[in-house]
From TrEMBL:
Every FAD/NAD(P)-binding domain range: 10-329
Signal peptide: none
EC number: 1.6.5.9
Membrane-spanning parts: 371-391
Lineage summary: Bacteria, Pseudomonadati, Bacteroidota, Flavobacteriia, Flavobacteriales
Superkingdom in the source lineage: Bacteria
Protein name, as recorded: NADH:ubiquinone reductase (non-electrogenic)
Gene3D superfamilies the record matches: 3.50.50.100
Similarity comment: Belongs to the NADH dehydrogenase family.
Keywords: FAD, Flavoprotein, Membrane, NAD, Oxidoreductase, Transit peptide, Transmembrane, Transmembrane helix
GO molecular function, one term: oxidoreductase activity
Catalytic activity: a quinone + NADH + H(+) = a quinol + NAD(+)
SUPFAM superfamilies linked to this entry: FAD/NAD(P)-binding domain
Database matches in InterPro entries: FAD/NAD-bd_sf (IPR036188), FAD/NAD-binding_dom (IPR023753), NDH-2 (IPR045024), NDH2-like_C (IPR054585)
Amino acid sequence: MNIPRTDLPRVVIIGGGFAGMALARKILKEDMQMVLLDRHNYHTFQPLLYQVSTSGLEPDSIAYPLRKITRSSKKCFFRLAEVQSISAEKNTVHTSIGDLVYDYLVIATGSKTNFFGNDSIEEHGMWMKTVPQALNIRSLILENLEQATITEDPERRKALLNFVLAGAGPTGVELSGAIAELRNHIVPKDYPDLNPNEMNIHLLEGLDRVLPPMSEHASKKAHEMLEELGVKIHLNTMVENYDGHLVKTNTDLAIKTETFIWSAGVTGAPVKGLNASALVEKANRYEVNAFNQVNGYENIFAIGDIALMKTEEFPKGHPMVAQPAIQQGKHLAKNIKHLIRGEKLEAFDYFDKGTMATVGRNRAVVDLHKWKFSGFLAWFVWMFVHLWFLVGFRNRTVTFFNWIYNYVNFDKAARLIIRPFKGQEENMRMDEEKV
Ligand SMILES: Cc1cc2nc3c(=O)[nH]c(=O)nc-3n(C[C@H](O)[C@H](O)[C@H](O)COP(=O)(O)OP(=O)(O)OC[C@H]3O[C@@H](n4cnc5c(N)ncnc54)[C@H](O)[C@@H]3O)c2cc1C
C-alpha cells in the first residue's frame, strides 16, 4: 500500500462520505498518521444525486476529490481501495490493494440499497446510491423518451412513457417531482412528436402518506405539491414484483413500464470480520456506545449511517441522514485526540437541526422543530442549506449558477446521453456492495 512506517498512532478511516470526511478534516493536523480508504476517489453529495438523474446537474458538481483533503498534510494518505475484511485480533484491514495495520480503526462505510429480499426488483429495477447509478437513470430516462418518439406501437409507447417510483421518502418525492418537471417543461420543447399527457409519473408508497419520516403537515403539503405537478400517488401500495416490463403490486394496480426506480430504503453496509455481536442484524448496522466504539472493541469505531447508537430519544439509533454522520465524524475527532493524550472520552449528543425535502421549483417542505413551513420560503431554505453543505467552493459555485440558469430558463441543461445505459448487469456491477 506504500504507507510509510511511523511511530505516530495510525488512524485508518474506511469511507470518505459525510462521516469519514468530517472526521478526516478535523484530525489532519494532529500528531497521528491518518489513512483514508474509499472505493471511489471522490466524496458523493448524495442529497443531490436525484438532480444528476434528472439532468439538472452535472455529476462533477456533486462529487469532491478525496485527495484534496489529505494533500494538506504530509502525515495523511488517501488510497483508492475496496476494504474486504477486518482482522480485529491482528489490528489489520484487508483491502483490494493489500493489508494495513491500524492503531485505531474507524468504519464509516454508510449504507446500501435495501431490496427487502425482493430479487426481481434487484434484478430489473434501478436504484440510486452512487454517481454512476444516477447517470444510468439519466441515460435510461432520456433513451426511453427517444424510443417513445420512434415507436409505432402505442402499447410500447405507453410503457416507455410510464415512470414508476417505489418509496415516497425524500428520495422518491424529490425524484418524482423532478421527472414531472422534465415532463412539464422540457418534453414539450425537446420532443414535439410526443404528447406530454401520455407521459405518466407514478409514485407508489406502502404506508398511508408520502414522506413518512416527516411531520403530517409536511406529508400533506408534499402530497398536494406532487399532485399539482401531475404525479400520480398510490398510497398503501407495495410493489411485489417487477420483471423488467410490468410492476405488480399488492393491490389491483399493475403498471407497464420500462423505467422502474426503487427508492424504498437503505440498510447498513458493514465490512466482514467483526464478531456477530457487533452487528444489529435487522438494521445491518454496528451497535456503538456513546463514544462510537463498536460493541466489543476498544479501538474500532463506527460513525454515520453504519453506526447504531441507541439513546433515550433514538432507541432505534439516529436517522440515516447526513447530520448525524457529520456530527459523529466531528465528535469522534475530539475523542481520538483524547484517547491519544490519555484523556477521558466525551459522550456524543446529537443536535437535530430538522428535516426538509424539495418537490420541485418553488416547492419544498421544512420541519424545524416547532416550525413547519412549505412553499417558496421552504424551497429557498432548502437551496441555501444544500449549497452550504455541498463540499468545495467550485461545486457550490457551479451548482449555484446551474440552478439560476435552470430557474430562469425552465431548463435542465445536462440532458445528455453521454454513456448509454447498458442494462441491469452494469447497474449491479456499479453498486457499492458489489464492486
Ligand atoms: C439518494 C439519496 C438522497 C439523500 N438525501 C438526503 C438528504 O436530502 N438529506 C440528508 O440529510 N441525507 C440524505 N441522504 C442520506 C445521506 O446521504 C447519508 O445519511 C449520508 O451519506 C451518510 O454518510 P456516511 O458517511 O455514513 O456514508 P456515505 O456518505 O454513504 O459514505 C460512505 C463511503 O464509504 C465508502 N465505502 C463503503 N464501503 C466501502 C468499502 N468496503 N471499502 C471502501 N470504501 C467503502 C463509499 O464509497 C462512500 O464513499 C440521502 C441518501 C441518498 C442515497
